[in-house]
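Hi everyone, sorry if this is the wrong subforum. Our group has a chain we'd like a structural model of before ordering constructs, and none of us has done structure prediction before. Sequence below.
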Amino acid sequence: MKDNQQEIFPIVDEDGKVVGSATRGECHSGSLLLHPVVHLHVFNSAGAVYLQKRPEWKDIQPGKWDTAVGGHIDYGETPEQALSREVREELGITDFTPVFVDKYVFESKRERELVYVNRTTYDGPIRPSAEELDGGRFWTIEEICEAMGKGVLTPNFENEFKRCFL
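Answer:
Right subforum, don't worry. Here is the predicted structure as tokens:
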């Protein structure tokens, strides 16, 4: 399995207005073209946080633990539509209530993303996609804090979790 480097992403300004388009390959090549993504942090009623394990074939941060759901917004799609699609594709969840938390620009050496952060409380069944993920599990806040800075979690998740939830 491999990411489709020819997939078309919208290019946006910092307000989220579409100003162009580019391929996944162009967006992840160090060009720093700003492209939008959605994230969903899934908490259970006990306060634990579900994290997904990124597969080794991913082009960004392979094999690390990450936000429960994270995905690119397709060209022509709203953040809300992308969130519903990604949650269904990655975790098999269709009945959840997202709460918008934040919107910010994340930049690394390879990419620049406009991140729409959401959270939900969910105690139902989670069926991680065998095609897109290497599984997942609930982590306590203490486990997450202990893993930070040790190369176990993605830097994006660490920064976002500190920014929005600690």
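For your construct planning: The CA atoms of residues 39 and 117 lie 5 Å apart. The chain has a mean pLDDT of 94.
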